[in-house]
Amino acid sequence: MQRVLGIESSCDETGVALYDSERGLLGHEVHSQAEVHRKYGGVVPELASRDHLRRLLPLLKQLLERQGLARGDLDGVAYTAGPGLSGALLAGAAFARALAYGLEIPAVGVHHLEGHLLAPLLESPAPEFPYLALLVSGGHTQLVEVTRPGVYRLLGESLDDAVGEAFDKTARLLGLPYPGGAALARLAETGRPGRVRLPRPMTTRPGLDFSFSGLKTAALHAWRARAGTALERADLAREFVEAAVETLLIKCRLALRETGLRRLVAAGGVSANRQLRAGLAELAAELGVQVYCPRPEFCTDNGAMIALAGCLRLQAGCRQSLDFTVRARWPLPELESLGAPRAAAASEADGL
Ligand code: KG4
Ligand code: ZN
Q1: Do 154 and 148 contact (CB within 8 A), yes or no?
Q2: Which of 270, 276, 299, 301 to mutate to test the pocket of ligand 1 (most atoms within 8 A of CB)?
Q3: How far is the CA of 211 from the centre of ligand 1 (A)?
Q4: pTM of the predicted model, to two decimals?
Q5: Ligand nearest 136 Cα, by number?
Q6: What is the pLDDT of residues 269-317, one digit of tens each?
Q7: 95 has which bridge partners?
């Protein structure tokens, strides 16, 4: 297995990337659909599917041109098979599977969260295994023990909203355009501290689960009750970000203590957050553990993480036949674990 094309289309970003099993990432391209969805205040699934279909081929051409490569130089194709929006996933999966069929190369479906969990391996230095991953995105908030590629243990997760969802909804409450998470974090940097108090949900209880819907609702109540106070948008944003980040840090501390793991990795779109990254660095320094935060473009959705995870799965002999499907819901514990890598040639002819 040499050059693997990765395709990401689970939500509102179209990502393509080329990963070389020997040389690492060769290049990647991402197209964000934020403009398409902005006027609706959130992702419109049907528009997302259509835009993926429109963008995939031009993005692939651009990627190959920039690398001075042709389609014939590809040795395998990996695509996000779930979880995500069904139509959006199908657009990427059908494109990927058809391309692999036409080129007579193998294809493999990848779990989107496995992509996020392995994204730090795109960086140098890459973390060694095992590590604790804090996976924080628009759809998930999880603490995962990553033993090695393909072997994951879910330690805790949000019982309701994902932290990214709480960021986006609070941003909307404060009139910020979709997708509001990053804009809310920027606004927070101009806010005054201590002007309002929001809860740090579930932090006084043992266990590694989270809950963010109460924090979002508390922000809503605080905003509605602001009449006659000097509370400004930026002040509420500041307290919201502090409450969310502090909550995540408290659970990371607990997870490190309970597992004894010495490496902490941040993954998913919310880990692009500057305040969270600073907090994780501080926590790691205090506890004497190593922290790894991939650059922000590898935290948010991208094709590079899918190409990398797909390359590892293809090397281990995983293949998706023409009888492919996608899974809108796909709990991480249901992901098939990966055996030790075996010679790819053994099953090169399968599933073409
Ligand atoms: O991983 P991702 O790109 O897509 C999903 O798989 O969900 O994560 C997107 C989430 C959104 O909720 C977005 O608002 C949030 O990540 N996000 C941020 C920041 N950048 C992206 N949240 C807080 N601070 C940021 N800087
Ligand atoms: Zn994601």
Answers
A1: no
A2: 270
A3: 17
A4: 0.94
A5: 1
A6: 999 999 999 999 999 999 999 999 999 999 999 999 999 999 999 999 9
A7: none
